[in-house]
Write a structure and sequence with these properties.
Helices cover 34% and strands 7% of the residues. The chain is mainly alpha-helical.
Length: 82
């Protein structure tokens, strides 16, 4: 909304590093959605809350595990149907 500071952020493709976590704190963000986990948590040494995104692996994560295109599509279909 114009004139209002953002309170949260979600990095595209769950890309983050230690500098980005510090930048979220420096920007005064209340929460971010970048890290994996099962419950909300505060990254060690940081003020903002992480709201984990864990339902789906990214395509890059599945490729790193050696999954084929067919395996990736099947995994997404299975997760959506669950």
């Amino acid at each position: 909304m114009p004139g209002h500071r953002p309170t949260g952020f979600a990095a595209p493709g769950r890309t983050w590093n230690a500098s980005s976590l510090t930048a979220f704190d420096d920007a005064g963000l209340v929460y971010s959605c970048d890290l994996e986990g099962t419950e909300p948590f505060r990254p060690e040494g940081h003020r903002h809350l992480q709201m984990p995104i864990t339902r789906f692996e990214t395509i890059a994560q599945m490729r790193a595990r050696g999954l084929s295109d067919t395996d990736i599509v099947d995994a997404y279909i299975s997760d959506i149907a669950a």
